[in-house]
Amino acid sequence: MKHATVRRLGRPALVAALAGGMLLTGLAPTAVAESAGGKLGPFGYGGLTLGMSAKKAQATGKIVRKPFQGPCAAWDLKAHPTGRDGVGLYISKRRGVALIFAPRGVRTPQGIGVGSTKAQLKRAYPRLKQSASGYPVAAVPGNPKASYYFLLSGSKVSQVGLALNDQDCTN
């Protein structure tokens, strides 16, 4: 996943980050993946909220910095490490927590998570749209400042991300 140029490209750019996140975060050990739970959204996950400053996010004691070169800082949730090449969330200098990837076992309040079918996704989010790259995107019920991004592998959800609509971390 390349992050050499910082440009606000919107949803198509986020799809690229999700594709990378799928490759990166999909490598969680089984014990860790099975222990995840809770809801992703509408404002955050695991004590972290979209827009929260890096300082406040660090003060939760729930995240650990990842070695990563890019426009935003890469972090993991301590409870759900993603491995050497993984990223669990991005924190922007300007916007704070900008993008959170759902650990395995975590679902949206509408019940969608890794393993959900495409049909379940469409039922949960009837106004589902397609990004320019063809990935499903849904407005977050109750949070007009955020969107859910989904990657599909065949007919099943393989990655879920919650992101600020104006995030500036991915290109």
Count of extended strands = 10
Class by helix and strand content? Answer: alpha+beta
Ends apart, CA distance between termini: 10 Å
How many distinct folded domains? 1
What is the strand arrangement across the widest sheet?
3-4-5-6-10-9-8-7
Question: Which geometry do the CA atoms define?
Answer: globular
Pattern of helices and strands: HHEEHEEEEHEEEE
Major pleated sheet: 8 strands, antiparallel
Question: What's the tally of helices?
Answer: 4
Q: What does the radius of gyration come to?
A: 14 Å
Question: Mean of residue pLDDT?
Answer: 83
Question: Can you walk me through this structure?
Answer:
The chain is α+β, with helices and mostly antiparallel strands and 171 residues long. It has one domain. The chain has four helices and ten strands, in the order ααββαββββαββββ. The chain has helices at 11-25, 30-35, 54-59, 118-124; strands at 44-45, 48-49, 63-65, 73-77, 89-92, 96-101, 129-130, 136-140, 143-153, 156-164. The chain has an eight-stranded antiparallel sheet with strand order 3-4-5-6-10-9-8-7. A two-stranded antiparallel sheet has the order 1-2. The protein is globular and about 40 Å long. It starts with 10 loop residues before the first helix and ends in a 7-residue tail after the last strand. Mean pLDDT is 83; it is low at 1-13 and 22-35.
